[in-house]
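Design a sequence for this backbone.
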């Protein structure tokens, strides 16, 4: 079967069993505690906790998706037979519609009857930390096949979640085919808080995840994911080089294409830093093996061709343009950096970070090219050196800026110039939420945000695409507030007093008893009033002028706006 036939078979199987097909969420998560969307359940998090209504939003308690995912925990393993940076996750979900028995039945029927595959064994949770062993799941597996091998493992292997700092989680049962874990079925019975405390969910749910690439691999009978019809066409375009490096180039080209198309941009922070590492690894291999820019562009075109009809957001012109811009920046220092690396006899975390900071060489390349000289170099020490540098930069920026809010606010910056820009964007998020509520109604609430030196990203609750007229009204409302040069003031008060006074708060956060409230405009007739840690501009006129660059869907009931300063 081709990957397209497997996709269609999976979706049809669950639609025939009462599941509503929901589109993939963006790789940019609404949860501020994570950098990327890493699992299919992330867009459904609030349906498990009862904060959102699946029947109202989907017409069903059961859904099916094929979710775009990026996971960076395996980035150093990319190049072997089964690890990837970007992958697609097949998943079926239930928010009270069914539980263990049906989920296990579906898993068995799809793998054995629909796909014609033989299950090596399944695993269940053996119990630990006050959570009992999952005898029930073992019983259901044995009812389906008395001869099936059931293995028991602990929390590390058979307990999943939460994604982010807190959220739904629970014991799992996993299906293994040809020695590989292909399907993880999670029984969301608990909610784990940030302090690791578990509480039983009122309504248990089902969350499953099966890597499409792994399923295609075992179905097509090939030995690696890179031999499947998802990845082989990309690999075949790459000139002669070591097999492992070909796989890395293939994986990274696909990841870059999807990350750029979902709005990520290379930077030195957080998700942007991960993207830059991936892009620069591609660029270094192109430099080492003299791969022409046109060949890299052809890799991106092949990615678009493979996913044609599934992900229309793959914008080939944007992908090639953004990659070329990063390559041009990096090319200026790459050759000098490689020469400098060659001069160093003993590569440790300090001089490795110097190579990164001065020449932009990614850790992976330093480790790989360094060979025996880099034996003592490891990721933990390098990351610790990176963290030290960030703390020094932050302290320097705070000192230069006279401590204006930076000590208690959430914004960080490498220098004063970047901090000033981010503060403007931060205040703009307050103007944006207020403008959205004025234009779309008071049911609109912030669902997440992200700020860097190039743009702000703001997620909000709204159940449809905004019209072009609504977007224009929101933009005009913000720019009018900026033109009015409104004063920005703040005061500390009790949280409940703040809410009673009309201040908005981000409902996903837990606030202390005493909070800071920022008011934009006259306190008696304010434009915006929010609970916030700052920092902000002193007057809105300092912002200048803004432009709404994009409005799009993130997940069911959540929209996203990107704004740039002009």
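Sequence:
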């Amino acid at each position: 079967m081709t990957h397209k036939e497997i996709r269609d078979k999976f979706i049809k199987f669950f639609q025939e069993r009462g599941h509503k097909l929901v589109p993939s969420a963006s790789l940019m998560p609404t949860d501020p505690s994570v950098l990327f969307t890493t699992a299919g359940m992330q867009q459904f998090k609030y349906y498990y906790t009862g904060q959102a209504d699946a029947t109202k939003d989907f017409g069903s308690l059961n859904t099916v998706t094929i979710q775009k995912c990026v996971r960076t925990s395996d980035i150093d393993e990319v190049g072997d037979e089964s690890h990837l940076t970007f992958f697609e996750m097949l998943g079926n979900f239930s928010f009270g519609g069914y539980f263990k028995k049906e989920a296990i039945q579906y898993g068995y029927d799809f793998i054995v009857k629909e796909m014609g595959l033989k299950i090596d064994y399944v695993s269940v949770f053996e119990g630990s930390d006050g959570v009992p062993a999952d005898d029930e799941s073992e019983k259901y597996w044995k009812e389906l096949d008395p001869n099936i091998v059931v293995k028991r493992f602990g929390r590390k292997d058979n307990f999943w979640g939460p994604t982010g700092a807190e959220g739904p989680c629970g014991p799992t049962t996993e299906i293994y085919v040809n020695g590989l874990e292909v399907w993880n079925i999670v029984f969301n019975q608990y909610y784990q808080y940030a302090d690791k405390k578990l509480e039983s969910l009122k309504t248990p749910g089902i969350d499953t995840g099966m890597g499409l690439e792994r399923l295609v691999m075992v179905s097509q009978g090939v030995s690696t994911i890179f031999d499947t019809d998802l990845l082989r066409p990309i690999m075949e375009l790459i000139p002669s080089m070591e097999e492992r490096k070909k796989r890395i180039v293939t994986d990274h080209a696909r990841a870059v294409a999807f990350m750029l198309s979902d709005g990520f941009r290379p930077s030195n922070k957080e998700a942007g830093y991960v993207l830059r590492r991936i892009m620069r690894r591609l660029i270094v291999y192109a430099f080492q093996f003299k791969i022409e820019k046109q060949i890299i562009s052809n890799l991106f075109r092949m990615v678009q061709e493979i996913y044609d009809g599934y992900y229309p957001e793959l914008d080939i012109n944007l992908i090639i343009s953004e990659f070329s811009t990063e390559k041009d920046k990096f090319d200026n220092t790459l050759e000098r950096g490689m020469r400098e690396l060659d001069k160093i006899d003993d590569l440790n975390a300090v001089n490795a970070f110097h190579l990164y900071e001065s020449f932009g060489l990614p850790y992976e390349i330093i480790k790989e090219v360094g060979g025996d000289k880099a034996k003592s170099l490891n990721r933990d020490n390098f990351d610790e050196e990176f963290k030290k540098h960030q703390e020094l930069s932050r302290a320097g920026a705070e000192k230069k800026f006279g401590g204006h809010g930076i000590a208690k606010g959430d914004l960080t910056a490498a220098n004063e110039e970047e901090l000033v820009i981010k503060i403007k964007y931060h205040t703009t998020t307050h103007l944006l939420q207020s403008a959205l509520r004025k234009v779309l109604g008071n049911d609109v609430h912030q669902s997440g945000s992200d700020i860097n030196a190039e743009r702000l990203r703001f997620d909000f609750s709204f159940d449809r695409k905004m019209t072009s007229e609504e977007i224009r009204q929101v933009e005009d409302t913000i720019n009018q507030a900026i033109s009015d040069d409104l004063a920005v003031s703040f005061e500390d008060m009790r949280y409940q007093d703040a809410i009673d006074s009309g201040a908005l708060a981000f409902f996903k956060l837990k606030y202390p008893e005493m909070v800071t409230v920022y008011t934009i405009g006259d306190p008696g007739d304010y434009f915006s009033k929010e609970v916030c840690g700052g920092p902000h501009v002193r007057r809105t006129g300092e912002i200048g002028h803004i432009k709404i660059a994009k409005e799009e869907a993130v997940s069911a009931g959540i929209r996203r706006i990107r704004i740039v300063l002009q």
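Residues 231-324 form one domain.
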